[in-house]
Design brief:
This protein is an alpha+beta fold. Among the domains are: 342 residues, Alpha/Beta hydrolase fold, catalytic domain (Rossmann fold, 3-Layer(aba) Sandwich), CATH 3.40.50; 90 residues. Helix content is 20%, strand content 33%. A hairpin with a 5-residue loop joins strand 8 and strand 9. The protein is globular. The relative contact order is 0.11.
Length: 725
């Protein structure tokens, strides 16, 4: 009996391509720190006449994008076996999926998507054994399937639920409120990329953050909303633009204050009784300042007094829990792998913090959640999850028993020991267990019935040396019994930035790849969070080249150890991972045969000028700084494309509604590479797909997600020799 892929192989793979549309060159010359830089495709950025809102679409850019999209569709849609692949992917992606429940009072809130539903539906269950009831079905709200529920925030007893929705991937959530019992929406509606921070104890209102101006990503404001009033009447606690409110007495220079205005900025986390609020201000992607404020004083006087807790320290914060006048906080200040401290809020200076869960040199704390009398600490142990339990005095209560080696998370409530454990691995579908943290009792709450056999897949973790000798870990996934003869089509994936960890996860859509001899590898690159703060910092700023070296070394290891050869090695990454694959393809075009660069940053000389990109200057640096420009120009993919180089095939993707990474990066890079490559573009084309109904990737309906996976998979299969006669 022929396999799915065999049917594709027999279909043949001859494809006559018309070639990409021509792109005009309109050179713009800049002088950057005394050096001349020529940009032939600046016009593809769009309209830059407004320095406060650059990169607006023009008719000329729209027309050019239409041509590129048409060319890409003519290629990807006509590859042999495309229809069979989509049918198989639809079968796999229409399997019902369910999210981990969150408990509020006697109600359990969760999401579920079944069959061909374009978006996940939000449900509530009254009591653990109650019937499931639909609260929000996005398709009933918007039949196009482009509207998604981005978050929900029930009040303490689950009688009310605030929620956010956005459309076509723009992530600009509008807040609404629902009466859970009746399902009726209240009149309250707050636009502006809103997120809720906490309800008032009597549920008469809530604290929230939004952007005062959607065209200004650095205009965050924290407000208090009272139900039944218009949001224009809401009281302001603090604004990002009022930088002196946070730092006026801390002797910051004008340059430092200006830089702080364009980080992720401030946020607030109130206690349930609204006596206290922790106020944080991101100083960069690896640092955050903390204050505490007495909200009872603000309610009486309208004056918000900030009392310093931890100022000027490197590190991040995570889970927190108020216990009267005590705050339990997960953080990595002076503890690069993380710790949990208890803070007396009447004496909150950092020197007075008490360690509850100590720093461990061998384990990285990825998260902490709080149940009744229990702290559940989620560790990364060589990029795999381990969960340890402690009481509030720091006494160990043992480890939580996990179903295996993989990635786990907990959904807890501070008024009960009941929790929900989510577990997944490369060969284990995402399953949810209801557990009692007091005695470790558990039972399966939900698990998908996937039409694949995970037991046929082998997962291993290997270590290899990067260019400078640093050991790097990598997961490798493939069908059991794979021969290491260098003949295996292989996809190497990576990210390497922002303290984000790549841990094991299950993807049913990878099984057609595995079943037909494909290998999937995920490298734990520096810049990520797998091995603590130092690991992140080793891939930031002037150390960014380490990330690319780690990835290149992963590809070389896969070749040297018989998994594959350059002709059968592809790489993939998105966002910061799109920068990764974009940088690596111009540095080592000989090592790879297919490249996917999704929603990428690629022109690192100009990236900071668009959308919210100044958030990332502490991670990458900025060409506006002469010292930082020197290392940025060496790796910025767009500036390092060399005419006449035989580049492998590349698929760039972007979302026209992306509010994070501007699609100009993919547009300009595709144009430059199409005009520069010395390869035969009939065999190794440079393709661009700009999705007009999407943003950075979140909120896509099922049909668009199926199309995207089919695009990327068929592209890899074609270029790595899986469609050959």
């Amino acid at each position: 009996m022929k396999t799915f892929l065999s049917a594709i192989i027999l279909a043949g793979s001859t494809l006559a391509l018309a070639g990409p549309p021509e792109t005009k060159s309109v050179p713009v010359t800049d002088t950057i720190h005394g050096q001349t830089v020529v940009d032939e495709y600046r016009w593809l950025e769009g309209d830059n006449s407004n320095p406060d809102n650059m990169g607006l679409l023009t008719d000329e850019v729209i027309s050019w994008t239409d041509g590129q999209n048409g060319y890409t569709r003519s290629v990807l849609d006509n590859l042999p076996g495309r229809a069979n692949l989509e049918d198989r992917l639809r079968q796999l992606m229409e399997v019902p999926s369910i999210g981990s429940p969150s408990a509020y009072g006697n109600r359990y809130f969760f999401s579920k998507r079944e069959g061909s539903q374009p978006q996940a539906v939000r449900y509530v269950r009254d009591g653990i054994d109650g019937d499931d009831r639909v609260l929000l079905d996005p398709q009933q709200i918007d039949p196009t399937g482009l509207t998604t529920v981005s978050w929900i925030a029930p009040n303490k007893d689950g009688s009310l639920m605030a929620f956010g929705m956005y459309t076509a991937g723009d992530e600009n959530s509008t807040l609404y409120v629902m009466d859970v019992e009746s399902g009726e929406w209240l009149a309250d509606e707050i636009p502006g990329k809103v997120r809720l921070s906490g309800w008032l104890p009597d549920s008469s209102g809530f604290f929230y953050q939004r952007l005062e101006d959607l065209d200004d990503a650095y205009s965050s404001v924290m407000k208090l909303h009272k139900l039944g009033t218009h949001h224009r009447q809401d009281q302001v606690l603090f604004r990002q633009h009022d930088i002196d409110f946070f730092y006026g007495d801390l002797n910051k220079t004008d340059a430092e204050l200006q830089a702080l205005k364009t980080t992720w900025g401030p946020s607030g986390s109130p206690s349930e009784d609204t006596r206290w609020m922790t106020v944080s201000y991101w100083t960069g992607t690896a640092g955050i300042d903390l204050w505490i404020t007495d909200l009872s004083h603000w309610f009486r006087t309208g004056e918000l007094n900030l009392i310093p807790m931890a100022i000027g320290k490197m590190g991040r914060v995570g889970g927190m829990h108020y216990d009267g006048d005590r705050l339990f906080l997960q953080h990595s200040f002076d503890a690069p792998n993380g710790t949990v401290s208890m803070i007396d809020l009447n004496n909150p200076n950092f020197e007075n913090w008490k360690t509850v869960v100590p720093h461990d040199e061998n384990l990285v704390i990825q998260g902490a959640s709080f149940a009744r009398g229990i702290i559940a600490v989620q560790y990364l142990d060589s990029a795999k999850t381990r969960i340890a339990l402690y009481d509030y005095n720091g006494n160990s209560k043992g480890d939580l028993q996990l179903p295996g080696i993989g990635t786990a998370g907990l959904s807890t409530s501070d008024d009960r020991t009941e929790a929900f454990l989510t577990f997944t691995s490369y060969n284990t579908p995402r399953s949810i267990y209801r557990i009692d943290l007091a005695n470790n009792d558990s039972d399966l709450w939900a698990s998908p019935n996937i039409p694949v056999d995970p037991s046929t897949i082998e997962v291993k973790q290997v270590w290899y040396d990067s260019k400078d000798g640093t050991p790097i870990s990598m997961f490798i996934v493939h069908k059991k019994g794979l021969k290491l003869d260098g003949s295996n089509p292989t996809i190497l994936y990576g990210y390497g930035g922002f303290d984000i960890s790549m841990t094991p996860y299950f993807s049913s859509t990878m099984f057609p790849w595995y079943e037909n001899g494909g290998v999937y590898a995920v490298a734990n690159l520096r810049g990520g969070g797998e091995y603590g703060n130092a690991w992140h910092e080793a891939g930031m700023l002037e150390h960014k080249q380490n990330v690319f070296d780690d990835f290149i070394a992963a590809g070389e290891w896969l070749v040297d150890n018989g998994y594959t050869v350059p002709d059968k090695l592809g790489i993939a990454g998105g966002s910061n991972g799109g920068l990764l694959t974009g940088a690596v393809v111009v540095q080592r075009p000989d090592l790879f045969s297919a490249v996917i660069s999704a929603v990428p940053l690629l022109d690192m000389v100009r990236y900071q000028n668009f959308l919210m990109a100044r958030y990332w200057v502490p991670e990458y640096g900025s060409a506006e700084n002469a010292e930082q420009y020197e290392y940025i120009k060496k790796y910025s993919p767009y500036q390092n494309v060399k005419p006449g180089t035989k580049y492998p095939a590349v698929l760039f993707t972007a979302g026209e509604n992306d509010t994070r990474v501007h699609p100009l990066h993919a547009r300009k890079m595709a144009a430059r590479m199409q005009n520069a490559t010395g390869s035969d573009q009939n065999a190794e084309p440079i393709l661009l797909w700009v999705d007009r109904d999407a943003g950075h990737g979140g909120g896509k309906p099922l049909d668009l997600r199926i199309r995207d996976v089919a695009d990327q998979r068929i592209f890899m299969m074609w270029q790595l020799g899986m469609l050959e006669d």
